[in-house]
Description:
It is built from three helices and four strands, in the order αββαββα. The chain is an alpha+beta fold. Strands 2-1-4-3 form a four-stranded antiparallel β-sheet. Strand 1 and strand 2 (37-42) form a beta hairpin.
Amino acid sequence: MTLALADANRVIAGAIDKANQIGAKMNIAVCDAGGRLLAFQRMDGGDLTPRADHPTLRGIAAAEGNHMFYGQGALPIFRQGVLIGACGVGGGTAQEDEDCARAGIEKL
């Protein structure tokens, strides 16, 4: 079971719809189950916030070996109980990011 490009584009469209509803400019990425990027869009004016470079997050990542990025705003995508990918969103508050990712995933 896989996540197709058309699926990824539906997720992104749903996340953008939610971002427009809340008045946020988002960066949205969708990857497959192996972590490979399928689709990415940055809304006009959607810059990543300075919180992405917070010292606490840098410290955790360094201690872990710089293999992971920690933060709220990404959610797994399951189909029939099988992990097929993930959607990550950034640009608003942590909760706004997650809300947009969830709204996108719900379009599948």
